[in-house]
TrEMBL record:
<dbReference type="InterPro" id="IPR024185">
    <property type="entry name" value="FTHF_cligase-like_sf"/>
</dbReference>
<protein>
    <recommendedName>
        <fullName>LUD domain-containing protein</fullName>
    </recommendedName>
</protein>
<dbReference type="InterPro" id="IPR037171">
    <property type="entry name" value="NagB/RpiA_transferase-like"/>
</dbReference>
<dbReference type="InterPro" id="IPR003741">
    <property type="entry name" value="LUD_dom"/>
</dbReference>
<dbReference type="Pfam" id="PF02589">
    <property type="entry name" value="LUD_dom"/>
</dbReference>
<feature type="domain" description="LUD">
    <location>
        <begin position="102"/>
        <end position="170"/>
    </location>
</feature>
């Protein structure tokens, strides 16, 4: 009994953050099990290192977008969604419809926001044929509250019904130790609009 206790103690001393961070995300998810989907998603998304911004309307989203651009020193976007290109045209920020090496940020939409683990589901509708690992180190995603779903199964069912099954992937903030696909230096910003 005492030997087991000392083994656990030694493991915590040697790797104090590794186990705690992985468990903390799971523990946080468990503690939010009965919370509203939007609150649960926001908590888990920010806990994993994402930057969550609630926007009451498009003018507030535009204002927050400008603040992010200024704070992050963004000078060129990868953006191909017509509505998002209109946002960038209003604030006169250059963009390309194809992913270029000089793009220092991506401004994209998403398929769904997963409340279960705070991840964001993308498809070819959002990132074309590009692998999510090739996206710039700063990603700004525009989504609506109605895109929040309970879990990945809900999202996959809706995606299959809509026929959007090409180039599916999910991304999360850079501090999510359970997600090894996200580049370590990637910053993920979400502008969540009320429908």
């Amino acid at each position: 009994m005492q030997l087991e206790f000392f083994k656990k103690l030694l493991k915590k001393i040697i790797n104090p953050h590794e186990e705690e961070e992985a468990q903390t995300l799971e523990d946080l998810g468990d503690s939010l099990r009965n919370a509203d989907l939007d609150y649960r998603f926001a908590q888990l998304f920010t806990h994993s290192g994402g930057f969550f911004n609630y926007c009451a309307d498009e003018s507030e989203a535009l204002s927050i977008l400008q603040q992010i651009i200024k704070a992050e020193g963004i000078s060129s976007f990868f953006a191909w969604d017509e509505d998002l290109k209109n946002f960038l045209n209003v604030i006169k920020v250059p963009y390309t419809e194809a992913l270029e090496t000089h793009n220092d940020a991506a401004f994209i939409t998403c398929e769904y926001l997963i409340a279960y683990d705070g991840k964001i589901v993308l498809s070819h509708n959002n990132i074309k044929h590009y692998n999510s690992a090739r996206l710039p180190s700063k990603i700004i995603i525009m989504a609506t509250v109605s895109q929040i779903v309970t879990n990945l199964n809900d999202a996959m069912g809706k995606i299959k019904r809509a026929g959007s099954v090409k180039n599916l992937t999910s991304i999360s903030g850079n501090q999510n130790k359970l997600d090894t696909s996200s580049p370590v230096n990637q910053k993920l910003f979400l502008l969540l609009l009320e429908d």
